[in-house]
Design goal:
- The complex is a heterodimer.
- Chain A starts with a helix and ends in a 17-residue tail after the last strand.
- In chain A, helix 6 links the parallel strand 8 and strand 9.
- Chain A is 37% helix and 20% strand.
- Chain A is an alpha/beta fold.
- Chain B is mainly alpha-helical.
- Chain B has a single domain, classed as ABC transporter involved in vitamin B12 uptake, BtuC (Orthogonal Bundle), CATH 1.10.3470.
- Chain B is globular, with a radius of gyration of 19 Å.
- Classes of the chains: A alpha/beta, B mainly alpha.
- At the A-B interface, helix 1, helix 3, helix 4 and helix 6 of A face helix 1, helix 2, helix 6 and helix 12 of B.
Chain lengths: 414, 320
């Protein structure tokens, strides 16, 4: 019996006491979890690649200059798989802070996981850059260490109405069909409110379950209400399927604007079904944010340089998840350089004061009730168009950043 | 059937595990042990309906979700303390299970298993559409809520001790049920339900009660977990994969025995936790744990504890 207890405890000790990594002042440890498995796998991987590119570039130059230490400190990553599930997020973030001695944190992908990680970051007073988390609801909950890189959900789809007002003032009927998930619901509820304020008529406001593969009943309802525009969507898989079925059913609308899916490069594999679909994006390779048009101080590399470096490293053009990952690193770097040290309070102050423009757009944080929420950055709208027989993404909105004109109406392609 | 000696070593062993984090002061260990305790409680509870009664409840996670939601709602909107909220969550889950049991426990075998998946998905869809509990967006705590418990640091330790007490209670309760006349009735149902009925076992009532008992503790676990997580969302609360993991833990350790469920949960959690953070395996953890578990199921179908019980008569009464 004693032996059994001994073995039990022994096994446990062995398993939980994996050697701690000690970090001195000769490197900067950045800790995070990513979703290597589970449903956020593809978005999270892009985000990680962007972040890694930033670290590689920084380290190629010797690291981040920290005034207090008087030298450049190279960036070291510590990361684990969170399996896209809340179960282990807190365990792993606690480990990152207390055992791996992470100096700064990057959030997991998605708002739900970020909210769980935020409790740990807050508890230990570690600055966490939240990228891949667009929810507004994390930011009025009393957290003072979480800083958002993405444009929040409340401003995600509102520009679709502005586009319609600009190109076709007569188009007034909107159908909103969205995934019944935290993110899509928050976006679409805000979009509905905005549309009604601007005098649009929301003829359909329906949610579909995550993982829906048959949209027939929704498409029938859309046909019955005959809207001018369809907006909504959710994540990649459902957005892709929805687009395909809209095409198969030849739904005649003037504008289709969906979340997430159109921004992902694989969307072009849909071919003609993807043509003229628009979508909001946190960032696009063609978006023309430049030193000359910047509304605040410029920091970091240009869009072109980023796309080139990413393409060289991974073999394809980055999407916004990747840019968001890179930007998280970039903003953190700027804050550390401004603060001149790695002390949380000083870096926080630098982040509060920050107002910069990067290849990714403007960055400025809310310091009021929604402390840490992104207020500088805004969405760009892309549209899949055909150029020399090839599917290409073009930026069509805002007008000052456009790379091509919007093709309107959507049903032109049938 | 004698009283057996299982609890005399099992409870001290669990206590030793529980005391490692406060003694060493390691928060990383605490997080690991918290998950172990959570999985142990879930597996031991599931074992009541799965192992004792022989009904495969595939969607058992639904009770964890229901308990979590009930407690979270009470804590967030009515400012109720974790402990009473947790108890209400557990009772809510047990009542739901009893009511559901009266309906779905008429089904046997695969039909019952499928029905429980349906129940989980139906409840998830319902919660997704109920706006007063946050719908698909879920509910978030304000960070201030932890001030009642002396700040977030203390609140997390508090949830750890609550989970520990819950685990000990669950293990004792599951053991007492197994050793009672009620438990004997359940095992009779497992072996041959029709024969049990003829022998005078009120099978319908017994099954519903067993279902309620096996839902009570997961409901309380849900309450503690989501208190600590600080937010609750339908897809996390009614996560079907976790349900399958629970069944797996019971099968891995040994069906029908308390020690088996505890061992299964412990081994499964440590295996996963180890692979997840190991620099060598962390990119392959799913594949490796899949292969290991497959091998165990192929060559030790009666589970780890079942295997030992079969090999050693002496250990049998200590491993119930």
């Amino acid at each position: 019996m004693k032996r059994l207890i001994g073995v039990l405890v022994g096994v446990l000790f062995l398993a939980v006491s994996m050697g701690p990594a000690w970090a001195g002042m000769n490197k900067l440890v950045i800790g995070f979890t990513m979703s290597q498995t589970g449903k956020f796998n593809s978005e999270s991987k892009e985000q990680f690649q962007g972040l890694k590119l930033w670290a590689d570039q920084v380290n190629a130059k010797g690291g981040i200059y920290v005034k207090m230490v008087g030298k450049k400190l190279p960036v070291v990553f510590k990361y684990y798989d969170d399996e896209s599930s809340k179960d282990r997020v807190q365990q792993l973030y606690t480990r990152l802070i207390s055992q791996d001695k992470a100096d700064f944190l990057i959030s997991p992908y998605s708002s739900g996981l970020t909210a769980s990680a935020a409790i740990i970051a807050e508890q230990y007073g570690k600055v966490m850059m939240a990228t891949g988390a667009a929810s507004d609801s994390i930011f009025n909950k009393g957290y003072t260490h979480v800083f958002q890189i993405y444009t929040p959900a409340s401003r995600y789809l509102t520009d679709a109405m502005d586009i319609l007002t600009k190109v076709d003032p007569k188009a007034k009927k909107i159908a909103i069909v969205y995934e019944n998930s935290k993110f899509a619901k928050a976006v679409c509820t805000s979009a509905k409110k905005y549309a009604e304020e601007k005098g649009f008529k929301v003829v359909l406001f329906e949610a579909y379950d995550s993982g829906t593969t048959d949209f027939t009943s929704f498409i029938n309802k859309i046909k019955a209400t005959n809207p001018d525009a369809i907006i909504g969507g959710g994540h990649f898989a459902d957005g892709e399927t929805f687009t395909k079925q809209l095409f198969e059913q030849k739904v005649k609308v003037k504008l289709v604007s969906l979340l997430v899916a159109p921004a992902v490069p694989e969307f072009s594999e849909l071919g003609k079904a993807a043509l003229y679909v628009t979508g909001p994006s946190q960032w696009e390779p063609l978006a023309k944010f430049s030193k000359t048009s910047a509304k605040s101080a410029w920091f970091g590399l240009s869009s072109k340089e980023f796309v080139k470096a990413y393409k060289k490293a991974y073999g394809y053009v980055p999407g916004y998840h990747a840019a968001g990952g890179y930007a998280a690193g970039l903003v953190l770097q700027k804050a550390i350089e401004d603060a001149g040290c790695i002390m949380t309070n000083m870096v926080k102050k630098a982040l509060e004061k920050m107002d910069i423009t990067t290849f990714y757009g403007r960055i400025k944080f809310d310091t009021g009730n929604y402390y840490g929420r992104q207020v500088g950055h805004s969405m760009v709208y892309l549209q899949w168009q055909k150029k020399d027989g090839k599917m290409v993404k073009e930026v069509v909105w805002p007008l000052e950043a456009k790379s091509a004109n919007l093709v309107y109406p959507f049903y032109k392609k049938y | 059937m004698g009283k057996g000696k299982t609890l005399f070593w099992l409870i001290p062993a669990l206590l030793i595990i529980i005391l490692i984090p406060p003694v060493t002061g390691s928060v990383t260990t605490r997080e690991g042990v918290f998950l172990i305790l959570m999985y142990v409680t879930l597996a031991v509870s599931l074992n009541i309906i799965l192992g004792y009664t022989g009904y495969v409840s595939f969607g058992h996670i639904v009770f964890y979700g229901i308990g979590g939601y009930v407690a979270f709602y009470l804590m967030k909107f009515h400012g109720i303390h974790l402990i009473p909220a947790m108890i209400m969550g557990g009772i809510g889950a047990a009542i739901a299970a009893f009511a559901l049991g009266e309906a779905v426990l008429r089904l046997r075998g695969a039909f019952f298993a499928i029905a429980t998946i349906g129940v989980n998905e139906a409840v998830k869809a319902l919660v997704n559409n109920l706006n007063f509990i946050g719908g698909a967006e879920g509910l978030f705590f304000n960070f201030r809520i932890y001030n009642t418990y002396g700040g977030a640091t203390k609140a997390i330790w508090f949830s750890y001790y609550t989970m520990a007490a819950l685990t000990i209670t669950t293990v004792i309760a599951a053991y007492l049920i197994k050793k009672s006349k009620f438990g004997l009735g359940l095992m009779a149902i497992r072996e041959d339900e029709d024969a049990a009925i003829i022998l005078g076992v009120n099978a319908k009532r017994y099954k519903s009660l067993a279902y309620a008992a096996s839902a009570l503790f997961p409901g309380m676990v849900g309450a503690v977990f989501f208190f600590k997580a600080g937010n609750i969302e339908p897809h996390d609360a009614f996560h079907l994969i976790k349900s399958i993991e629970m069944i797996f833990m019971v099968m891995l350790g040994g069906y029908g025995s308390v020690t088996g469920a505890v061992t299964g949960a412990l081994v499964y959690e440590r295996l996963k936790g180890f692979l997840l953070v190991n620099p060598l395996f962390k990119n392959l953890h799913m594949a490796i744990s899949g292969v290991i578990l497959l091998l165990i199921v192929l060559f030790m179908p009666q589970g780890i504890v079942g295997f030992i019980r079969e090999k050693s008569k002496k250990l049998r009464e200590m491993l119930e």
